[in-house]
Amino acid sequence: MSWTVRPEPVGSAVAVALWRAYYTEVSDRWYELHEGRRTEPAELEREIAADAGAGLVPPGGVLLVARWDGEPGGTAGVRLVGVDGGGGGCVGAGVEGATVTAELTRVFVAAGLRGKGGGSVLLAAAEEAARSLGAGRVRLDTRHDLVEARALYARHGYVEGPPHNSDQYAEHWFRKELSVDGG
Q: Residues in domain N-acetyltransferase (predicted)?
C-alpha cells in the first residue's frame, strides 16, 4: 500500500467530499475548543458552500488529491498569490530579484489514514506543484490548536514568521523558500 497524488477538479465528487471532511473537522475542533459544541449543521453547509475553491484551478492554482491504495484520503491546494520584490527565490517572476509566492491551503489527511506519511507526501507534491506554477516561495497560515499541522510544517522546513493576512482564524504564519532542485 502506498500514497499517490494527482490533480483533481475542485468540483469533483471526491474533492467535494474531502473538502467537507476537512472543513467539518477544523470547524468542529474550533467550536469545541472555544464554545464547547460542534458546528451547527446550517453553519457548516453555508461555510462549505461559501468556499468552492475558485483559486485552486489552472492556470493559477491546483487541487491535489492523495489516495492511499487507490482510496481518496487527503488534499492540498496550491494557489498563486503574488510577487514579492527581492528575496532570493529561485524561480523568477520576470523581474530581477522578484519571487512568485504560492499559498498552500486545504492541507488535510483523513483521520483514519494519519500516521502513514500522507502529510509529507502531500507537502512534497504541493511544493512541486507550486514550482510548476512558477513559485519560488510558499506560504500558509494555520491555527494554534492544529498542533499536528504546525509540527508537520516545521519538520519540512517551513519557518514561522509575521502575519501575511488578517484571517480571523489564522494564528501562525509559515513560509518556505523553494529551490529549483526540489529542496
A: 17-181
